[in-house]
# Entry
Amino acid sequence: MASGTGSSDVARLFETGAHFAQVKSRRHPSMKPFLIGTKGRQEIIDLAQTESQLIVAKTAMATLAKEGKTPLYVGGKTEIASLVKAAALQVGLPFVASRWLGGTISNWVEIKKRVDRLAQLREERSSGALAKQHTKLELVRLEREEGRLAERLDGLVELAKRPDALVVVDPRRERHAVKEANDAGIPVIAIMSSDCDLSVAAYPIVANDASREAVKLILTELGGAFEEGRRVG
# Structure
């Protein structure tokens, strides 16, 4: 997507279904200025504004990269979790693509201990140290511990400190993550539909957050901006 506005860019968003919002009864009051009509029961998002928001968010991502900062990707709802994980891995960034673990930001010191424990278990298993130091029964227990930790913390292993920003898909669903970020003064870049509160994001991108193709396109654009920021930083 180009750095400036253009009808072809709006068309790309349109092709993914990014313009489909929620039904009117679910609309958050802050979203009214970004809606331009209805189709059936669904309201329609003004994609010209979405495109402008995306450009601003991409600039923010590029700046984060230039400054050596680390955004954390967050999105655990079933239909998009795999996209969030893939997008983060594509640019080598941490992610939470399952249920948000309370305290990930607000109690990072304790969460980091669990992340380090997971990294330790993996290192000892790959080096063969676990097999040498433990009985078969102990190994079974350690494997279960590693599995439990990996289920919740796998995407955080490379996160050395609290994230510098959040990239969130559907901040209404991820309200706990967003609240922790807001309380800590950490900026939120959010792909959000019309049922979300615009004010929770420093960089909102109003679009269909349930469309896999729309989310994939926007995450790809954000990731590309981050990589570009790395190259010039």
